[in-house]
Structure formats: structure tokens, C-alpha cells
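Minutes, structural biology subgroup

Action item carried over from last meeting: produce the C-alpha cell record for Polyphosphate kinase (Sphingorhabdus lutea). EB confirmed the sequence was re-checked against the source entry. Recorded below for completeness.
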Amino acid sequence: MTISLSNFEAGSPFDGNYAKSLKAVQKRLGELQSLHILHNCRTLIIVEGWDAAGKGGAIRRLTANWDPRYFEVYSIGAPTAEEKEKHFLWRFWNKLPRAKEVSVLDRSHYGRVLVERVEGFASEAEWRRGYDEINEFEAQQRDIGTNIIKIFLHVTAKTQDIVLQERLETPSKRWKVTAEDFRNRSKRTDYEAAIAEMFRLTDTRWAPWKIFDSNNQKAARIAILNYIADMMEKDMPKNFPELSPEIAELAKLTFGK
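Output recorded by EB:
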């Protein structure tokens, strides 16, 4: 996919009642999770984006009404010493969803062609090979019925700076700011090039990318949650099963009707 990130920088405020819209889409997501469980579906949600783009906030609101037994959020950081000795995809296999489950990756295997490329943690041969390896990895998951949803949250450098400064000024949020935030900020042009190539080479028929303007986080959250709901619903049976005769009989004996 050829994209221009400048097309996702309007930062338009949410046009509507944010609280009501959030409640409505979270209720919808809760119902969809029930269908997801009942029909033995599996979904992998990949959340990528700039530092301070609101990935964590979107994920918290996404999972707010979900049964915690059937989803897991994985915050992906630097690989361990053991993981570095393996193929880069090795550490993601045990994070894939089983039947009934949703796995949410807060950052992902795309680190190979983003941070590992830009920061020199992978050789050029390794990160260039990574595009095909990622596409094949995702195709394998799709072949066994995994619904793959990939989203990217975009913010301008100006918005990113505002958020970082606000975090530094807020005692309860200072811990979120790391030296990596400033390192990545200084290499924004390199990251923009890596992101553009990532979209071009990994936007596939079986696992397309969706980019969101996150310069207004409330508007972005509603858009992201509705998109994920649409994508979950698209590949999932929409009917709840009828009450089984056994349970109906037990209910009749218990409640008299």
C-alpha cells in the first residue's frame, strides 16, 4: 500500500457525544466477544504506531467489557538474551490466540522492520528478509482461521512533543517517558521511511493495514474500536445459539417456567 502519513494529520475532534459513543461501541464489542467465544473464533490484533500516539489508551478501552479469560494483551519490548539467539518470530508463536481467544499485541513482530531496522539491531539482510517472513507468518495464521487486524496510530511530531511534555509534567504519567522516546524522536525521518516501506510491502490481502489519525485521541479511539468491531463481525457468525433442551429443562424445574 502506498500511503502518505500527511493524509492522517487533521486531528479533527470527535463529532458527537464521546461518552455515549464509547459506551455503545464497548457494548457492541462485549457482544462480539460472546459470539467469538461461542463460535470458537480466534483473532490477532496488532497495534503499531508512534510513541505517545495513544496505543495503550485505545487498548484499555477496547478490552474494557471483555471477559479476561478469553483475551490477552502483550506489551512487546526488547527481546531477551534467549530470544535474540532464536529467529525473530520465535517469541511471537506463544502469543498467538487459540480457539475462542483474542491476542492483542502492543507493538509486534513489525519491530524487525521498524526499530530493529532504524536502530541497527538487525542487519540490512535480516530486516529486508523480514518482510517476506512476516507475510508468510501471517498467511499461516490466516490459513488456520485466525482473523488478523492490523492498525497503525499516526501523530505528527508536534502532537508527539505535546504529549511527551504533558507526561513529564504529570507525576502519575512520568514513568511512561523513557530515553527511547527521545532517541526515536531524533530519528523520525528514518522511521517515516521505514513505516512507508512497511506499509508498501506488508499490506496484504489476508492482513491489510488500517491507519488512524490519532492527533485527537478521543476521535481516534472511537474510530479504532468501531473498525475492530467491524473486522471481528465481518468474519464471524452473527447468531447466538438456541437454548439447549437440557438447560431449558433445568431452568423449568428450577424456576417453574
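Discussion: The chain has a mean pLDDT of 95.
Next step: EB to file the record with the rest of the batch.
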